Automatic annotation (TrEMBL):
Top-level taxon: Bacteria
InterPro entries with a match to the protein in the record: CENP-V/GFA, Mss4-like_sf
Family note: Belongs to the Gfa family.
Domain CENP-V/GFA: from-to ranges: 4-119
Organism: Alkalimarinus sediminis
Protein name, per record: GFA family protein
PROSITE patterns for this protein: CENP_V_GFA
Keywords, comma-separated and alphabetical: Lyase, Metal-binding, Zinc
Annotated Gene3D superfamilies: glutathione-dependent formaldehyde- activating enzyme (gfa)
Amino acid sequence: MADYSGSCLCESAKFIVQGEFDSFYLCHCQYCQKDTGSAHAANLFSNSAKLVWLQGSECVASFTLPGTRHTKSFCKTCGSALPTTHSTGLVVIPAGSLDSEVTVLPTAHILTASRAVWDAELELVPQLKGLPS
């Protein structure tokens, strides 16, 4: 069984995930676009892993969009996306919140009917190793 560690940007909240991931989805729904301010969310899912807060659980807030199952947990201090455990036991981990290397590739892009128009052919966009000058 693997353990993965993670934290928020300000490091007020730190956690470990004990167990394996079942799937890794890049979700293009409009809710995830709003959550991330980007083209999609990148979330790992597990029905068997356990989420353990090492510190800062009191810094974590959660918002569930009324009438949906869409929940976002985040740090109250810095706003970073953080993991959540749904009432079903499903653990959802924002991939970018992990400090451990994620070695699994995404399972699929989902809800691509809502894909942002500008999220196409991104491999053609120039790539810079640092900040633009």
